Amino acid sequence: MALEKKDALEAGILQDQLADLRAGLFVSMPISTILSGLILTVQALSGGGFAAAIWFLVVNAINAARLALARYQLKLRETGHQDDQTGNSQRLRWFGILALLAGFAWSFLAVLTVGYTTPQAPLHLIILAGISAGAVTYGSAYAAAAINFITPPLLVTVGCLSAKGNFEDYILAFAVLLFMGGLVRSSFVGQARFREASRLRHEAERLAAEMERNSREDPLTGLLNRRGLAHAIDQLGEHTRTVRGNAD
């Protein structure tokens, strides 16, 4: 019994993580489309429109897949489908995999800017920093999704800046590394806090349900007491009225 309660609690926490991650994607994906469109425009004006167009299509194809998974999750929730712990974990992993693919796609900013050496590179770095911070903000419920997204492009950025060999670029590369470390830490802290809040809520709901059930049953026999019988009669009356109303 204790193991079943533990599994049910974990399944509920994972369900909450999925719901929060889904809600965040519905906000962050349009922002990602706008920012990638801005990069496409800048690259097109500077003569690198073809490669940027391919990059734009890849990024937004992955974004579309992430939104499709979020909408599928929303449909399951609306139909009252509650998955077990394994099912919820698998869907979270899929969100993490798609976030990693998106991270690799954003890593190709280094290719578009020839290792962040073009005049447009500072703008792209600012956009990358903003979208990385946004990924952590809107994906705080599940650290793996945010970390998978931010790690590839930021590490590639550090490598490109370090390869320039200038003291200023070394400093900037170190700053990007510190920035990434802070985001990773924030992701883990955010997930821990979210899971703890979710756990407390589910345990409070379970305790309230047990107290309500105990108030309707005899503690020795487990049979309905007077309050429980009155409640059962009321429910039966409501069900009968509903059936008659549907029949009419």
Briefly note the structural class of the backbone.
Answer: mainly alpha
**How many H/I helices?**
8
Number of strands: 0
What shape does the CA trace take?
A: elongated
Low-confidence stretches: none
Strand fraction: under 5%
- Biggest pleated sheet: none
Radius of gyration: 25 Å
- Give the oligomer, counting copies of the same chain as homo and different chains as hetero: single chain
The sequence of SSEs as H and E is HHHHHHHH
**Helix content percent band:** over 70%
What report would you give on this structure?
The chain is mainly alpha-helical. It is built from 8 helices and no strands. The mean pLDDT is 85.
Short description:
The chain has 248 residues and is mainly α. It has helices at 2-45, 49-78, 85-107, 109-112, 121-138, 143-163, 167-214, 226-247.
